[in-house]
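We were asked to recover a plausible sequence for a given structure. The inputs and outputs are reproduced exactly as logged, with field labels preserved.

PROBLEM: sequence recovery
POSITIONS: 432
GIVEN STRUCTURE:
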C-alpha cells in the first residue's frame, strides 16, 4: 500500500517535473514568439542606418547560444536556391511572411520574391533560421539576411552555397539594368538563335571577329607563358543598323561563355558603384564576357576615370573580354578609344556597299518562295537605288514589301512592289 502510494507520489513528482519543463519550454517559446512577432515591423520603423545594428543586437540577445551571420548581397538569392530545391524552407508562423509577386508577361509564370520573412530552413540535414528584411537605401531596395545557426561553419557554408548557386550561369544571361543584376532567359533565347550565317560583313570582318575571340579563349597558356595579361577589349563602331548588336549576340552564342550584358549603369546615382559591381561580378565569373551596348551613352565626364580604372586599373581582369558598341565614337574620349590596353581592337561596321546590298537581297531571295523573289534585273536596280541604306533599313524594305505584296492580293510583280517601297522609304527618311 505504502509502496503504491510512494510510487504514485514518485510518478506525480516525475510528472510535475516533466510538466514544469514543458511549461518552461512553452513559455520560452511564447517569449520568442512575442519577441519575433513584431520583430520585422519594429526594425523597419527605425532609421535606415540603425536597422541592421538593431536587428543584429536583438538577435544576439534572443539567441545567446547561436551563431548569427549577417549580410546583404545580390548573390544571396535564397528564392532561386529554394526553387531549385537545394534547400527546403517553411515560413515561421509567428511572423508575417511578405512576398512580392512580379508579373512576367502574358502566359508566363509569375515570379515570387520574398521581401520580409523569418524562415525555418532545412539544408544539408541541418535546421536553422534565416531572417530576411528589405529596406530602401538610396534608390534601391536591398534585402539583408541573418542566418541563425548552431555553428559558424554551417552558417557560412550555407551563405556560400546560396551565393555560389546564384552566381553560376545556367542557360541564362545576366543583365545589369536599373542597378540590378537579373537573369534574362528571353535575351538568352534570342542570343541562342543568333548566328553569323545570315550576317553580311565586308571583306574578312566576319572571320576576323570570330577568330579573334575564339583564339583568345583558347590561348590562356600562351598569354601566361609570355606574361601578357589574359584580357581583351574590343569596340564595334558604326552607324545604327549594320550588325553590331547582331554580331555581339552571335559571338555570345558561339563562344558559349558566361556573359554579363550591361544595359545601363544608370539610372541610380551610384553609377560608379554599379560599374564596380559589374566588374566585381565578372571577376568572380571568369572566363567571361562583359557587353556594354552603346558605350557612349554610359560614359560621361563624371564617371570616365572610374570606368577606365575598372577597365585597366589596379584590379586584374584576367579572363575577361569586354565587348562594347557605339554609334557615336566622336562622343567617346580618346582615352577610351585610342589606348590599346583598354579596347585592343576597333571593328568598324560601315553602311553596306553595292556588293553587300546585293548579297543581302540574294539571301532574302534564297529564303522566299518563287513568286516573292526579286528578279536579277530587279536586284541590280534595287542595289542602285538603295545607296546609303543600312542593313536594318534593307530589312525594313523587304518586310514592308512583303506586307504590301500580300495585301494587294499577290497580283503585283515583286520587282515593282519593292522599287515603289524604296521610293517611299527614301521619301520618308528624307534621303535623296
Ligand atoms: N551586316 C548585316 N547583315 C545582315 N543583316 C544585318 C546586318 N546588320 C544588321 N542586320 C539586320 O538589322 C538588324 C538590326 O541590326 P543591329 O545588329 O541591331 O544593328 P546595330 O547594333 O549596328 O545598330 C539585325 O537584327 C539584322 O536583321
Ligand atoms: Mg545595336
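RECOVERED SEQUENCE:
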Amino acid at each position: 500500500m505504502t509502496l503504491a502510494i510512494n510510487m504514485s507520489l514518485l510518478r506525480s513528482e516525475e510528472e510535475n517535473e516533466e510538466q514544469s519543463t514543458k511549461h518552461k519550454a512553452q513559455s520560452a517559446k511564447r517569449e520568442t514568439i512575442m519577441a519575433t512577432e513584431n520583430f520585422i515591423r519594429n526594425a523597419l520603423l527605425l532609421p535606415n542606418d540603425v536597422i541592421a545594428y538593431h536587428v543584429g543586437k536583438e538577435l544576439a540577445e534572443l539567441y545567446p547560444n547561436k551563431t548569427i551571420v549577417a549580410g546583404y548581397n545580390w548573390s544571396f538569392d535564397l528564392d532561386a536556391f529554394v526553387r531549385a530545391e537545394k534547400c527546403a524552407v517553411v515560413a515561421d508562423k509567428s511572423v508575417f511572411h511578405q512576398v512580392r509577386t512580379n508579373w512576367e508577361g502574358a502566359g508566363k509564370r509569375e515570379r515570387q520574391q520574398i521581401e520580409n520573412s523569418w524562415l525555418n530552413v532545412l539544408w544539408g540535414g541541418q535546421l536553422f533560421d534565416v531572417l530576411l528584411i528589405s529596406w530602401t537605401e538610396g534608390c534601391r531596395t536591398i534585402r539583408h539576411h541573418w542566418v541563425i545557426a548552431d555553428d559558424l561553419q554551417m552558417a557560412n557554408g550555407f551563405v556560400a552555397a546560396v551565393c555560389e548557386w546564384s552566381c553560376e550561369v545556367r542557360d541564362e544571361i545576366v543583365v545589369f539594368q536599373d542597378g540590378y543584376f537579373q537573369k534574362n532567359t528571353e535575351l538568352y533565347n534570342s542570343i541562342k538563335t543568333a548566328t553569323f550565317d545570315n550576317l553580311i560583313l565586308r571583306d574578312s570582318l566576319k572571320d576576323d571577329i570570330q577568330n579573334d575571340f575564339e583564339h583568345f579563349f583558347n590561348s590562356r597558356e600562351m598569354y601566361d607563358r609570355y606574361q601578357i595579361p589574359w584580357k581583351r577589349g574590343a569596340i564595334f563602331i558604326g552607324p545604327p543598323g549594320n550588325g553590331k548588336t547582331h554580331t555581339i549576340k552571335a559571338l555570345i552564342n558561339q563562344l558559349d561563355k558566361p556573359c554579363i550584358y550591361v544595359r545601363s549603369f544608370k539610372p541610380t546615382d551610384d553609377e560608379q558603384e554599379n560599374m564596380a559591381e559589374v566588374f566585381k561580378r565578372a571577376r568572380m565569373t571568369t572566363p567571361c564576357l562583359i557587353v556594354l551596348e552603346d558605350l557612349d551613352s554610359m560614359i560621361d565626364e563624371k564617371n570616365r576615370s572610374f570606368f577606365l580604372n575598372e577597365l585597366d586599373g589596379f584590379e586584374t581582369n584576367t579572363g575577361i573580354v569586354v565587348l562594347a558598341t557605339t554609334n557615336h565614337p566622336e562622343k567617346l574620349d580618346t582615352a577610351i578609344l585610342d589606348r590599346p590596353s583598354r579596347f585592343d581592337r576597333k571593328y568598324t561596321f560601315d553602311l553596306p556597299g553595292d556588293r553587300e546590298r546585293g548579297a543581302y537581297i540574294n539571301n532574302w531571295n534564297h529564303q522566299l518562295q518563287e513568286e516573292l523573289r526579286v528578279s536579277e534585273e530587279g536586284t541590280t536596280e534595287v542595289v542602285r537605288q538603295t545607296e546609303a541604306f543600312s542593313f536594318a533599313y534593307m530589312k525594313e524594305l523587304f518586310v514592308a514589301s512583303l506586307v504590301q505584296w500580300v495585301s494587294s492580293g499577290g497580283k503585283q510583280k515583286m520587282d515593282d512592289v519593292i522599287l515603289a517601297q524604296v521610293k517611299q522609304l527614301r521619301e520618308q527618311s528624307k534621303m535623296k
